[in-house]
Amino acid sequence: MIGLPRHAFFLAIRSLRHSWRRSLLLALVLGLSLGVPLALASLLERASTDMRARAAVAPLVLGAKGSESDLVFGALFFAATPPRGLLMQDLARIEGDGLGQAVPFALGATAQKTPVVGTTIDNFDRRGLRPASGAVFATIGECVAGAEAARALGLAPGSRLFTDPASLSDLAGVFPLELTVTGILPPTGTPDDGVLFVDLRTMWSIRGLGHRHDDPAASTAPGALIGQDGERKIAGEALPIERKAADGIAADFHFHGDPSTFPIDAALVYPADAKAQAILLGRFTGKDETLQLARPDQFIERVLERIFGVGRVLGAVAVATAALVLLVAALAFALSIRLRADELALMRRLGASRGRVAAFLATEAAMLLAIALAITAVCALAAPLLAPVVMRVAAG
Amino acid sequence: MLIETTDLVFRRMAGEKAAFELRVPAFALARGAALAVRGPSGSGKSTLLALLSGELLPIEGEVRARGRSLSSMSDAERRAYRATCVGQVFQTFELVASLDVLENVLLPFRLHGSLALDDDARARALEQLERVGLADKSRRSIDRLSHGERQRVAIARALVTQPMIVLADEPTGNLDPALKRAIAELLVLEARAANAALVVATHDESILGEFTGVLDIGSLRGGPR
After folding, report:
1. Rounded-to-integer distance, Cα B88 and Cα B156, Å
2. Across residues A233-253, what is the average pLDDT?
3. CA of B73 to nearest chain A CA: how many angstroms apart?
């Protein structure tokens, strides 16, 4: 009996190889039917872990009234556009009486199709984010790249890239601004990996609220100076606008208007304590309130409940399908044995016992199942890689 | 004597009635004997071969191999006898499509624990393939062989275990007339070279001249013919 496993493996491999199309199809059908429910469960588990972890980044999120989903997914996952209407001065309602700290975010720009996120240095300090190489941005036109964004765009400290125009037809609005990479963040497995962080003033400059140009009176461009009101010079449209902030000229950037009235999209709010959190939550519940203060943890739990509800239905369908496929596969295997009745009868006539012939068939079935389980394992292991897709789908 | 039989009776029942009955007079086979079992289709030639291989047991009489009755053996002993002492050739070749020529010849060694698949066995298989003229096709797929070549592979497989008796059931039944004599000659020659007794069931008169003896049997529903 010592040689039985060796002979059984040999004959099983030969048989599977001889009818490799049938074997592969059977293994694929089996593997996928078992793998899909597992992959679904594994995917939802990973997605929920990631989403809960992200929701824990900040206890509260401040934004303009409107879609809570857009606010949370925009502020925490950079995957949606929060409702418009939040201004810098609104942060005073959080920080004015010392109830907490608000870290502003401005979204909506891209550089080589990678999201650009405007924030302040507090975002890094508050969350303990430190570049793996280089340093955090210090002035207008500098950016810190997430690990995945840096890899995809081939960025390193010192690299330069332009932001994308909002649209080709938007000639009077957002113009490209050159960014200089000052640091690369370490991989975190969060949405931070896929974005470029810039200073809030850089984002305002991208939006056209800040710029740099020569003294209109000193410009050689015809029509650069169209008038003068005392000390105030009135620039004409012909005055060239500088879009590069690099090379030590960032300090020449200036903003027209009061920065406290400049728009932001959201703010992560860190209450001083539980009592402060309760007060803040109550502060934004008025009937005529134009802002909202969302609790990301509670919101994400509601989203996950919906996703898992759908997942449970899909899972039940997948399990039922898998059971059916298992039955069909067993029947197909039984049929293939019937088709090989002559071969099995020959083995018996040449002296093989029933047990030995059964061992040959069992080995073949086990090898087929092993291939199917390998496919199942690949499905289950690869599925979590799709977790960001689930997050994007959840964000709408 | 290698094989001895007393008068044999085998009966297959259908309910209470005998659907088929075979009576074979006693005979004996020495090493090198080549016996043709002649009879029309359905006469019981294949049944006689099954009695000689121990697959079936007679209800009267007995088959003795080297003096031991097959009827007195356990199932396991009869399987061991079949694996080690009997070589078999079939009308439809009965080769395994997923194995190549050499692997088919070596198949008996994978089917019973008393046969060791070692270097000697492999050398014997290659030698046997050379003897039947297929040395250069040992790694060829069975699907790519002609009918004559397939039967040669089956003959090599039947002899590779150095059996004491070779049983061939209509070995030329699926071959062209031109090939029948050649295969029958090869079978007789190789069995004699292996010093084995040969029993061939056939209704093909054209190959009877190759054998040292002919046993006529008839199909009986109502007794021997």
Report:
1. 10
2. 60
3. 14
User: Within 13 Å and on the Cβ side, how many CA atoms surround A198?
Assistant: 32
Query: What confidence tens digit (pLDDT) does each residue in A126-152 have?
Result: 888 999 999 999 888 899 999 999 999
Q: Decide if B12 touches A, using CB distance below 8 A.
A: no
What are the φ and ψ backbone dihedral angles of B38, each rounded to 5 degrees? -110, 145
d(CA A204, CA A118): 8
- Cβ neighbour number for residue B17 with a 10 Å cutoff: 7
Amino acid identity at A370: A
| B21: three-class secondary structure by DSSP | strand
Nearest CA in chain A to B90: A346
Q: DSSP readout, B68-100?
A: EEGGGS-HHHHHHHHHHHEEEE-TT----TTSB
With beta carbons under 8 A apart, name residues in chain A contacting B84. 351
Residue for token pair 């359905």: B42
DSSP B206: G
At A75-117, the pLDDT tens digits run 999 988 899 999 999 999 999 888 999 999 999 899 999 999 9
Q: Measured between CB atoms, which of B53, B82, B111 is closest to A356?
A: B111
Does the CB of B104 have a partner CB in chain A at under 8 Å? no
Tell how far CA A246 is from the center of its chain. 30
Phi, psi of A69 (to 5 degrees): -60, -50
Which tokens go with A287?
């009937």
Considering the entire predicted model, what is its pTM?
0.68
- Partners of residue A60 on adjacent β-strands: A269
Question: How much is the ipTM here?
Answer: 0.89
Q: Per 3-state DSSP, what percentage of chain A is helix, strand, and coil (rounded to 5)?
A: 50, 20, 30
Phi, psi of A186 (to 5 degrees): -70, 160
- What whole-number distance in Å separates Cα of residue A185 and Cα of residue A150? 9
CB < 8 Å & 24+ apart, contacts of A159-162: A160/A246, A161/A111, A161/A112, A162/A111, A162/A112, A162/A243
Q: Do A3 and B110 touch (CB under 8 A)?
A: yes
Which residues of chain A neighbour B79 with C-beta distances below 8 Å?
Answer: 351-353
- pLDDT band at B223; cut points 50, 70, 90: very low
Search chain B and give the residue with CA nearest A360: B111
Nearest CA in chain A to B86: A350
Q: What is the 3-state secondary structure (H, E, C) of A98-146?
A: CCEEEEEEEEEEEECCEEEEEECHHHHHHHCCCCCEECCCCCCCEEEEC
Those residues whose C-beta lies under 8 Å from the C-beta of residue A375, and which sit 6 or more positions away, are A27, A28, A30, A31, A32, A35
How many Å lie between the alpha carbon of B93 and the closest alpha carbon of chain A? Answer: 10
Strand order in the sheet with B86-89: B86-89, B165-169, B197-202, B34-38, B213-216
Q: Which of A174, A195, A166, A183 is nearest to A243 (CA)?
A: A174
Residue A279 one-letter amino acid:
I
Burial class (CB in 10 A: 0-12, 13-18, 19+), A110: middle
Angle, alpha carbons A276-A277-A278 (nearest 5°) = 90
Give the CA radius of gyration of chain B. 17
